Amino acid sequence: MQKKSGSLPSTISLCLSLLLIACSFGACRRSAAPDGKSLTLAVNSGVEGDALKQAARDYETQTGVRVNIAEFPYANLFEKELIDLGAGSGAYDLIMLDDPWFPRFAERELLADLTPMFNRRNLAGPDDDFLRSSLALCRQPYETGALYALPYVGNSQLFFYRKDLLENHGLKEPVTWDDALAAARTISERESAGAPGGRQVYGYVMRAAQGNAVVADFMPIFWAFGAEMFDAEGRPTVNSAEAVAALRFMLDLGKYAPPGYVSFNADEVSAHLLQGTAAMSINWPAWISAFDDPERSRVIGKMAFTTMPAAKNPGRAEIGNWLIAIPRGSKNADAAFDFLVWATSREQMKQSALRVNPPTRRSLFEDPELLARFPAYPAQLRSLETSKPRPRTPLWNEIENTFGIFLSKANSGELSPEVAMNQANVEIEKIIARNRR
Amino acid sequence: MNADSDKPGSEMRLAQPSRARAAIRRERGLPYLLVAPAVAVLLALSIYPLVYLVKVAFQTGSGDAVRWTFANFERLASDGFFLTALWHTLVYAATALTFEFLLGLGLALLLDRSIRGRAVFRAILLIPMMLPSVVVGVVWRLMLNPTSGAINGTLQGAGMNTDRLTWTASTALALPSVIAVDVWQWTPFMFLVLLAGLQAIPQEPYEAALIDGSSAWQTFRHVTLPLLRPAILIALLLRTMDLFRVFDQIFILTQGGPGNATETVSLYVYRTAFRFSDFGYAAAMSFVLLAMTNVVSLIYIRLLQRQEPA
After folding, report:
1. Does any domain span residue A168?
2. Beta strand pairing status for A158-162 and A303-306?
3. In this structure, are residues A417 and B264 in contact, taking their beta carbons and an 8 Å threshold?
4. Is residue A162 a contact partner of residue A279, using CB atoms and an 8 Å limit?
5. Residues A257 and A399 in one domain
6. Cα A165 to chain center, whole Å?
7. Do both A198 and A306 map to the same domain?
């Protein structure tokens, strides 16, 4: 009896380890059906990926084509896709990608050109309903080159502000960055701990953690001040007079931001906005719905969303679209293309929009049913149409990281704006030179 | 033995030694057979990746454009980010190790005597070590939040102005903050190993010291410390190896920021490999970190093996 009870767990563990070994040798992997009626889709875990996953289930019931989903967190998705596509293993028939990754994939010719596939179906290309700024991201070179993807989720930054606070203090919606700074100063001073209401509200809040966060929140200021990352020859120009002025302006805004904003990421910024302790910010549309959630928000109905303030140049938001592409190594490219066209069609994208993903089609931003649910759509559409992409270079991850480190150093007071921008320029030059060799 | 070979029954007798020899041979082979699986696993999981790491460290480019080169190692010497990260790693390891050792030793000495509630204290002291580093990172991140965190809240309650105490957001305070979190989490480990060491020391030397009339300090210096030496070195060795490769708490707490004020080599390696896809350079940095860890570990092991001079 005792012997038996002792051997049962070991038998189980033996079976489990055998199963594990079998799995690692690929026995558990679902193989593609020989007739090509099976697709494998790499998606990110998040609302964008969830919408596409749901669409894949619908596609299975409608067409009988099996769609396998490989889901990865945002931080790993790029790496998985790059390794797999680089090796040409053809594990994925469709991949979701964040638009800043696109140049890296397209430059190494890892994606299938979609135009011949459109032509085979007697179509010239994607229809005119797609927003120009979204479709431009799917071409290499930007806007003019061959088409390697279709846009699925149309994010671009918005300017978030507390309309109640601005009204209370006789302020208007900020049209320029100077308006925003003046409003931030007024609110910070009047809504301080000693003022009626007794709670400190900070005039402005931003993400200034090194890396992607600080760069994303800085770019709209940088561009509005007339600065550019690169000149026409591709040399970095982040130490131009305009760029330094933009950084100096960011530090001015920082004076009205909560202490420690230098380490803020999306979580901290959103917490301040949701708790009503900050009045203005740049943020992404994904956060809009949270402000109407009574469990999380103390500012229900008090937030307004608009396009980026201007300075010397008109205000422009950073665009951040999710794209879907077909890897060049896919063995089911035709079936994948059918799915791609179906998933980005007006009807299907509306389903995705109802699952809170901003669309990339103009008609959907004007759709009455969606407008009723998403009142910020007009501002989102204006923001998307005037948005600007991150510089289209395959080295963007590394350049953005380096740029972000120096922006963070300036915000923390470690370096002056001039020194920070000069050093950033030198380091970005190094990255470019190193990769030219 | 051969003299008996022509006698009847010699076949029997001959067969016996040969069988015995076979048995001995089998027995000699048995240990090798028994360690073979472990060696195979070690080869697959440890040696192969190491060889691969070295190979990748001497390569640049990818796919068809791979070149053999020293470029990755040359770049190390002129890369300000790497040198800063290396410096942070050394400062982090040295500071955390010192505090963890002194606090751990103090706690171990305190709890090595029979005081009331000793078991409870011991259990409570071990809690931080049992928490996953990620949880520790998140908890401390919340506590260190400059406006809503418990630490600044307490200080404000005591009437302090905390506007400049932004902890992980301040260039000056960020590294000390992440080190403090490490000390909080890993002092219990030092305590545990040193307490075990203390309790393994026999009573007789203490009795002898008592009879000789030595002071408490003399007893500690000349009886406790020498006898605790193996435990101390093992605790320091294990912690040093861990500290050199520290990643998780810093990743959660600051991601290496502000700027690169808390970036250690492990974080920079992670970024280089998985964000910039530059595996060659990441491998070269890992190799340096590995070499550094090995050298320090060897020093500890030498010290451990050396006999304490009488």
Report:
1. yes
2. antiparallel
3. no
4. yes
5. yes
6. 29
7. yes
Confidence of residue B310 (pLDDT cuts 50, 70, 90): very low
Contact B258 A263 (CB under 8 A): yes
Candidate from B257, B276, B278 with C-beta closest to A263: B257
Question: Structure tokens of A281?
Answer: 């910010």
pLDDT-derived band of residue A22, with 50, 70 and 90 as boundaries?
very low
What is the rounded average pLDDT of the residues A370-397? Answer: 95
Q: Is the dihedral of CA A367, A372, A373, A379 positive or negative?
A: positive
Mean pLDDT value across residues A138-166 = 95
Select the residue from A263, A277, A430 to test the B interface by mutation, using most B Cβ atoms within 10 A. Answer: A263
A4: in domain? no
- Is pTM beyond 0.90 here? no
Same domain, A58 and A165: no
**Whole-number Å distance between alpha carbons of B239 and B233:** 10
Domain B71-305 architecture = Orthogonal Bundle (1.10)
User: Does one domain contain both A357 and A407?
Assistant: no
Task: Note whether B137 contacts A: Cβ–Cβ < 8 A.
Answer: no
Asked if pLDDT for residue A4 goes beyond 60, the answer is no
- Are the Cβ atoms of B276 and A401 closer than 8 angstroms? yes
Locate A381 and state its tokens: 């559409």
Q: How many domains does chain A have?
A: 2
Both tokens of residue B220? 């500690």
Residue A173 has pLDDT above 60, yes or no: yes
Residue where the block lists tokens 């979701």: A96
Both tokens of A311, joined, read 């300075």
